[in-house]
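Input/output pair, single chain:
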Amino acid sequence: MKKLLANLIGKKFSVYVGGEFERMTDFIGFMKLLADYSDFFRYTKSEQIDFLLELDRDRFAPIDANIYVKIGK
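Output:
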């Protein structure tokens, strides 16, 4: 998990609401979105790892029905 998080920490994330670009954020902002709008912190540790692995692989993560993020460079 440490290696996965270390890979994501330096990234920038594009936030989309309703399919339209809203803003850029960093890893801390991404975690705040997860805390405010998703059940991420209620997942089991293995579910959290799977979510983050999928994000790292697909470069895309749904936060809720109307919000998603894409990893930038």
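The first helix runs from residue 2 to 9. The mean pLDDT is 94.
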